[in-house]
Design goal:
- Helices cover 23% and strands 21% of the residues.
- The chain is built from 15 helices and 27 strands.
- It has an eight-stranded parallel beta barrel with strand order 10-11-14-15-16-17-18-19. The protein has a six-stranded antiparallel sheet with strand order 20-21-22-27-24-25. Strands 3, 4, 7, 8 and 9 form a five-stranded antiparallel sheet that branches.
- Helix 7 runs parallel beside helix 8 and helix 12 packs parallel to helix 14.
- The mean pLDDT is 97.
- The structure holds calcium ion.
- The site of calcium ion (CA) has 9 residues, from strand 12.
Length: 638
Amino acid sequence: MAEFFSSPEFESAYTYTGSDLGATWTKESTCFRLWAPTAKSVKINLYRSGNPGAEDLIKSVTMKADVNGTWVAAVKGDLNGVYYTYTVSRNRRRVETCDPYARTTGVNGLRAMVIDLASTNPEGWEADRDPHAGIQLTDAVIGELHVRDLSIDPSANIKNAGKYLGVIETGTKTDSGIPTGIDHFKSLGITHLHILPMYDYGSVDESHLEIPQFNWGYDPINFNVPEGSYSSDPFHGEVRVKEVKQMVKGLHDNGISVVMDVVYNHVYEAKDFCFNQIVPDYFSRVDESGVYSNGSFCGNDTASERSMVHKYIVDSVCYWADEYHIDGFRFDLVGLIDTDTINSIIREVHKKHPNVMFYGEGWTMPTIPTKPDIHLTTQPNAAEVPEFAFFSDTIRDALRGSTMDTSEHGFVAGAEVDKHLLHSCFMGMPFWAPNPTQSVNYVSCHDNNTLFDRILLSVPEAPHDVRVRMNNLAAAFVITAQGIPFFQAGEEMLRTKPDGKGGVVENSYASPDSVNAIKWDALNDPVVMNNCNYYRGLLAFRKAHPSLRLTSREAVMDTVTPIHLDNPHAVAFGIRGTGDVPMIAVFNAGIHPQTVNLPAGKWGVCVNANKAGTEVLETLEDSVCVEAISSMVLVKIG
Ligand code: CA
């Protein structure tokens, strides 16, 4: 079937373009529409509860074949809160499964629920807006966070520990009175909170939340349903919907936009995924002999090039933007998804929400699309998706060293890194990026070691204070570089993922809270507190200077000029843009001080090894001496 599903004949006969797939509720009746072109018959099973296996069938309703391979049925009465599944029969096989278009489900995502979505809106929802509507992409500062990590450590003193509602608890403090949770991130100066997967994923058993469980959540089972384990009640489908909306509104009310991490490139179990149950293997890239393409290294790749998968992904992203007011989407392994699908998503979402931002992991992966001539959304194809930004592993690896070999030094740990590469990274245009708006600059995310752990692994012999300087040298580079700055929540706190045996964990996707949680007590250490202030100051400095946030190649080339230094461990830049003061930025990773001549006039230091901000710390003329393993940023003041 693999070739047939991707053929023009199949697509012209069986592409449904309507907007009513799934269950459409009104008080009088609910209309169901399912796309199942290979089915012989389909019925809907209505249940009292969402608990899989519970014998509480209300009734089954036979669906009628309709256009383009769809099946329809209307059920009279107010079905809000009624759970349902589909039974799909073809040849001698019969499967009962969830609805790919389910808006919510019962526990563990096996039974869909009909829902009156308007009844889940928090008060003031109609007036809720992206607090950063109208900003440029390069004005964004993104912090990446896992819902549970924020609040599960007892030191957070957050009541809704590990839950959606814990993300928006304000006024929380450590026992010593230091702000925790969202208050901390708000004061740091991020614009966007990027939340690790919060659609319904499969690796946490929602029916046993009394047992501590952790997973990053890159194992989707229902793409249009919030994950149940972060809700206060995963058994009642409306609760998770209400609480995600409350979380989004609470973040917006605190001036923070919300980015959702979406994982359309693979599913938890290809055979069990409801779409594949209904139309066998349609959703996945499978060859004629039944072998799954596995460029994702997660067992299966999504066949985004097929018309009804393309539509499904576009519909899904639009739904989260419309229904949940999500302000940005981070695509996991977007290098597996075709550029047509990504451009359709951006076009459709921007019709109603022109401000929504899109970025993702554009790695080139060994996937096998089901159609010829498919262009994938990879870094080398960046020009084909001009409104989509990519994580810059180029700046990450240049500054901190490779993710493959953790003993390898990066620039901040004293490696001699190609200066052209460093220059292009600072200018927001590593070789694959046509414009700074397409480069997401980072040195830490949930994947691989935290920045501080990565530095420890490459220079275990270095004293603690030296490793802190390396950390902050990387931070200053990323935050003053052209492009979109991004960091893992807690990088500013020198976050570490201790394995409890004196080492650190690299891949903590299923590690316990002791590894993953943000330990707010760390802020009792004055060094850590000073580090948070350093990041806060860097972000304030970035915000104060439009010439650090340019949006075109031409503007960067006109504004930023590398300064030649005869030192393999230091780079420097002159920054002279219209509507801003001239600046000099120096990054010295060497173990000796580096002197840089200054153009005529008076120069004020705003960033040095220990302090950063918009205030001038000292005034210099003629030259500046930059300490070993530190950065300095100066502004012209006369
Ligand atoms: Ca789940």
